[in-house]
Amino acid sequence: MSERQALLDEMTADGELVERLEDGRLRCTACAHRCTLAEGRRGICEVRFHRQGQLRVPYGYVAALHVDPIEKKPFNHLLPGRTALTFGMLGCDFHCDFCQNWQISQEYCDPLNGVSPALLQRTSPQELVRAAVRAGAAALISSYNEPLITSEWAAAVFREAKAAGLRTAFVSNGHATPEVLVYLRPHLDAYKIDLKSMQERRYREMGGKLQAVLDSIAQAHAMGLWVEVVTLVIPGFNDSPEELWEAARTLRALSADIPWHVTAFHPDYHHTQAEPTPAALLQQAAEIGQEAGLHYVYAGNRPGRVGSLENTYCPQCALPLVQRRGFYVLENVLTPQGKCPRCGTAIAGIWS
């Protein structure tokens, strides 16, 4: 083992999302891969591993820490106009070639990377909560890498956050298990899930399973988590009208109140052959979502170029409720109870 790997392995704790098998192996239940690990073996994510009869998992550090508008995650129905302290660690259970946080999410599996452990910030849940309070943040959010594979750390942070009156959220690929969602539910308010494609073959290319993501969206919604879904619209990858219709209808079958964000792609990492997503394609995708019956459809990453598709409207009387440009709220006329001030319709979301 390299000195660097040894240093990273020191920043771990005993995992709780684990099933002990009769032959001494451990089955990790943090994500839908359900890796079965003999002594000394690592999961697909590379950050969860079996050592001396215990599942060791990342703990006690952050690789990225920023205060951002909550709209940047993106959440449009979670405390609009407020900020969040967002933290991330290393690693992912996918290997998307268009990843926009690849420097930390693909840290363990790509030779282009090599984040020095010296650049990681050792910290505690209490310190992160104090930092959020000092910054005036309304929420703590786990993002940047895949938070499911660091769920034990997130749960520890979120326990402290909830005690301090902060909201909590995941920004995730949604490749979850029922066990991890049950584990997180007491500590988690909101869950942003990427629905990257409606094609199983695309998910195989990325290293996951489409049905696991669809099941996670359904389970998270049924459990009462506030769910928003994002589809990064990539020309030539997932942008056909047929596929967008399938995504929209799938979400509508769960609830008309699940916000669907169709966001613009820019060439990055290993996926540089596609063109940036034109605003007209985002508008077409959003119109499909609206025609499918979704109440809240947004187009993102093209500030000022997608007409009214950055704003929230009352689904009953069409009053503009929250007007945005990019990640910033220009006006919010929702009542403190999250209702339309004109017709009194309750708008789905978390507003306080």
TrEMBL record:
InterPro entries found in the cross-reference section: Aldolase_TIM (IPR013785), AmmeMemoSam_rS (IPR027596), Elp3/MiaA/NifB-like_rSAM (IPR006638), Organic_radical-activating (IPR034457), Pyrv-formate_lyase-activ_prd (IPR016431), rSAM (IPR007197), rSAM_sf (IPR058240)
Cofactor: binding comment: Binds 1 [4Fe-4S] cluster. The cluster is coordinated with 3 cysteines and an exchangeable S-adenosyl-L-methionine.
Keyword set includes Lyase: yes
Domain of life of the source: Bacteria
Family matches, as SUPFAM superfamilies: Radical SAM enzymes
Family matches, as PANTHER family: PYRUVATE FORMATE-LYASE 1-ACTIVATING ENZYME, PYRUVATE FORMATE-LYASE-ACTIVATING ENZYME
Name this protein carries in UniProt: Pyruvate formate lyase-activating protein
Organism for this UniProt entry: Levilinea saccharolytica
